[in-house]
Structures are given as C-alpha cells and as structure tokens.
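Quick one: co-fold with N-(iminomethyl)-L-glutamic acid.
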Amino acid sequence: MKLLFKNIKELIQIRDSNTTFVAGKEMGNLPSLKNAFLIVEDGVIADFGKMNDCPNDSFTQTIDATGKILMPTWCDSHTHIVYAGSRETEFVDRLKGKTYEDIAKNGGGILNSAKRLERTTAQDLYTESKLRLDEVIKLGTGAIEIKSGYGLTKDAELKMLRVIKKLQKNYPIEIKVTFLGAHAVPSSYKNKKNEYLKMLIDDVLPIIKKEKLADFIDVFCEEGYFSVSDTHTILKAGKDIGLQGKIHVNQFHSIGGVAAGVENNVLSLDHLEILTDADINSLKNTKTMPVALPSCSFFLGLPYTPARKIINAHLPIALASDYNPGSSPSGNMNFVVATACIKMKMTPEEAINAATINGAYAMNLSNKIGSITKGKLANIMLTKPIQSYAFIPYSFGNNCIEKVFVKGKEILTP
Ligand code: NIG
Ligand code: FE
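Sure, here it is.
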C-alpha cells in the first residue's frame, strides 16, 4: 500500500527524529514546506518534499491536496473518556449558582460518576466509551491517553482499566493507559483516606503490575482530595511497579504539588490554572511537560493556565482536552487549540506545537507520532481548502478537518 498526497498547499510540523518536544521561543516556530508531496508506505511516513522532487513511482492511491494543509493528527495526552452517563444536571446547577466544589462536597462530581460506573457493566461501559473515541478520532485525534479514576473500588478501577485496554486492542490509534485510583476518596472510605490509599497500593497496584494494565499513574493533588504527602506516597508506589507519574495539580490551589511532581520525575503536570512563580521555578531544567486544559477552564469558568508566563520562562507546554463528564464534556482538540489562542494568547504555531509534538511527549510517544518525520506513523490529517493554518483556531467552533488518516488508512468522517 503506497499512498501519495500531491500538490499539498502546506505540509506543516516537519521535524527531525531527534525533536521530542519544543520549548520557549522555539514553540513559535512551525517548520513547513509549501507546495509539497508526502508518501505513506505500510502505515508510516516514507518520504516528503517539494512537488518538484515528487517521485514518478506508481502508487496504490493518489490524493490531490490542492489548497489544503496536511499535518500530524492531534495528540491528546489527558482524557477520562471511559465513564458512565453524563452530568448535565450538575451543569444546570452550576448555571444557577452552585460551584463545582460545592457540588463535589455534596456527593456530586467524581463520586456521582463513580456511582454510575459501579452500576454499569464492562460491556456497556465499552460501548459508551467507544462512541466517544470514534467521535474524537473523526475530529483529528490520532493518539490519546485515557485514565481510570471513576471506579474508586478495586473492582471498578480494574473494570475501567480493562475497558481502556480493550479500546487499545481494538483501535488503530495510539492509546496510553493511566491509573487514577487516587482521583477522590470514595464515600465508603469517608474520613479514611489513608486506608483508601493503602487499598490502592496493596490490592490494586499488584494486579496492574501482573496484568500490565497501565502505563502511568496519576493523582488529584488538591485541597479536599489528596495532599502533597499522599501524592509522594502514590507516585512512589507507582514508580516501584514501573509506572511514571502524570498528575492533576494546581487546578484550584497551589499547594506544593508542582514541586512534588518534579521531585518524582513525573512526565507531565496537568491543569496548572493557578501557577505561582515558585511553581514555574520548580519546572525549570526538568523533563516534565506542563499541560494546559483550556476546555476545562472554559466549561467551569476557571482561570486559564498562564501559557505566556510558561513559554516566556523558556518552558514547553502541551494542550489536551481533559474530556470527562464533569469539567470538560468535549474532546474536540480543534476547540482546545482555538481556545488556547483566543483565551491564553498562544499563537497558532505555539498551539499546534502544544497539541502535536508536545502532546506526544506527554504520553512518551514522540518517537512514533506528533510530527511529519520519516519513519513516524502516518497519523495525519488533511484540512478543507483554507488560506493558512491560522484559519484552524480563527474559525473556532467550525471543523476544518476534511480527512483523517490513521497509519495511512482513511477514517471515514460523516
Ligand atoms: O481533570 N480534576 C479532577 N478531575 C477531572 C474532573 C473530574 C470530574 O469532575 O468528573 C479534571 O478536571
Ligand atoms: Fe483530568
């Protein structure tokens, strides 16, 4: 199978294989070729260049990309797409004045989703989650991380992880699995947080290790959820079975979770809506990727992660959707990129870098995906005819993506 894209108006995000992420000023650079060709062979990017140098071989399929942009698919490094039901009643309660934190304190929020998930069979959970995955792939997501964390019992957490593993087995896109047992303390362990953590560590982690059910470990480090000391405990326990950390931190308060994450060499620090200068300093000279989730800020009316401050400190930043029933019931990465530009003042170049190569890094996948690089997977997408790539965030709410290819195979969009 040899596929040729010819007359590409602009082929963007071209990187050499040594680039695993981009930081600071370099984020403002989006290397590209105008009037280009690209060849896919056996599911990987085999060659690309200027149209003048396009080889005269025979191809199984040729796509004329006149007027269109070809680029890597989005890399969404933070989602919770495996969940049961929805929470629009809480949404309406918030519209009427309740806060997200009030709702959570009264048994809503994560605990509400956990109740629903416990009653849902693995088969139904799979069917429901599959629809969400199909939806985001059609919107251009070609690699995704999915967390547990709505189980909050041994059995329900394992049920979630196994559903994610089944999605991973049945889908051609790259899927990474994160264990987020420490997402909230369940009602059955009310005032017994340490016992809950002990149960996660003693009863759940050994099974995760034995059955290879996760790639990463996560914890919601926040007032009213898990403390900095709990964060150290769970990250260390994860590390002992080979799981690198990716943590929820600084969503509402800066309590020292950033430094704790860095100390534990986490791969990414996610949310960061509230970010102090001390937090920024702890991120310097580390290999940890800060991840912003603008759809969550949009939906909950929270401050946006201060991307300019992060980039001006010569740090990298990635963008992800946080697709979940409570704080971001959308996994549309096109909206994420647009919101990052409109609300966080990221330039289109920065936002596209953040949602491709840097997102890939935040899943340990930048050797495989996230840029136009020979040998990387041909998870690529073609826009509709547009003037320039800045049109993608500019035309927020519209879908500029015409065709999505996963390992060179077209995903049929409606
Ligand atoms: O990333 N902050 C913690 N967890 C999720 C939201 C969970 C929920 O409300 O269901 C988040 O925003
Ligand atoms: Fe999240």
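If it helps, The longest helix spans residues 193-211.
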